């Protein structure tokens, strides 16, 4: 009997030493949720809500920018619309094997754009709306000319100040460059611009935004929403 009691006591003692209260263990789902929130907050700090990510150029647009100088030179004094028409005809006749590099570059940029778009939206940003092909303004109420105009963003203010220099830089590399190339250069330059250099434009944009808000409040007093 004493031997049996000793064995039972040994088993009870061993179980007690190995036992870990469930309440002391961290809840796995809560920890994962907390980590996700931290990552999201950290990511949000790096997102510039004044500048939504730009949609990537299509395969055709990339091709157009590549061949435009050559086509423009060959066609001499032809109108821009005629040059565009010729490039479109060449693209349609282009074999799929030669279109592939342009489409591949577009797909790669599209994936990156989707990542940036998700981060932008998760941080509280709002993507600009796009008009679908074939859409029309017919039937829409005419915009009131007295309605306050939306303020310019910091980026647009900066482009306005630097457009001439940006255009000169792009045209020096490619005299036949399209306006889209200038804006592409502007976007890249803005991203690299130091925070100290952006401060002036961010401050001005905030000032314009506050003025716009006040003007809209006054406007709505006599022009309430339907």
Automatic annotation (TrEMBL):
Signal sequence coordinates: 1-18
Gene3D superfamilies: High mobility group box domain
Alphabetized InterPro entries for the sequence: HMG_box_dom, HMG_box_dom_sf, HMGB
Domain HMG box: 53-121, 148-220
UniProt keyword terms in alphabetical order: Coiled coil, DNA-binding, Nucleus, Signal
Coiled coil stretches, renumbered: 191-222
Residue ranges of the region described as Disordered: 126-150
Superkingdom of this protein's organism: Eukaryota
Residue ranges flagged as DNA-binding region: 53-121, 148-220
One Gene Ontology cellular component annotation held by this UniProt entry: nucleus
SMART domains membership: HMG (SM00398)
Record GO terms (molecular function): DNA binding
Keyword Glycoprotein on entry: no
GO biological-process terms attached to the record: regulation of transcription by RNA polymerase II
Listed PANTHER family: HIGH MOBILITY GROUP PROTEIN DSP1, MITOCHONDRIAL TRANSCRIPTION FACTOR A, ISOFORM B
Designated name of the protein: TFAM protein
């Amino acid at each position: 009997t004493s031997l049996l009691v000793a064995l039972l006591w040994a088993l009870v003692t061993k179980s007690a030493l190995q036992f870990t209260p469930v309440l002391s263990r961290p809840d796995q789902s809560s920890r994962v949720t907390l980590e996700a929130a931290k990552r999201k907050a950290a990511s949000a700090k790096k997102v510039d809500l004044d500048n939504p990510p730009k949609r990537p150029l299509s395969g055709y647009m990339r091709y157009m920018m590549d061949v435009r100088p050559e086509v423009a030179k060959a066609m001499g004094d032809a109108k821009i619309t005629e040059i565009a028409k010729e490039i479109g005809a060449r693209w349609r006749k282009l074999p799929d094997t030669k279109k592939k590099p342009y489409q591949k570059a577009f797909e790669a940029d599209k994936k990156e754009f989707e990542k940036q778009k998700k981060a932008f939206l998760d941080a509280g940003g709002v993507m600009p709306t796009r008009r679908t092909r074939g859409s029309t303004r017919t039937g829409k109420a005419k915009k009131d000319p007295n309605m306050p105009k939306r303020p310019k963003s910091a980026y647009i203010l900066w482009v306005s100040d630097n457009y001439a220099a940006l255009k000169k830089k792009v045209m020096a590399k490619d005299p036949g460059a399209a306006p889209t190339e200038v804006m592409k250069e502007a976007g890249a330059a803005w991203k690299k611009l130091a925070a100290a250099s952006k401060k002036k434009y961010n401050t001005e944009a905030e000032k314009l935004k506050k003025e716009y808000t006040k003007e809209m409040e006054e406007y709505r007093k006599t022009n309430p929403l339907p």
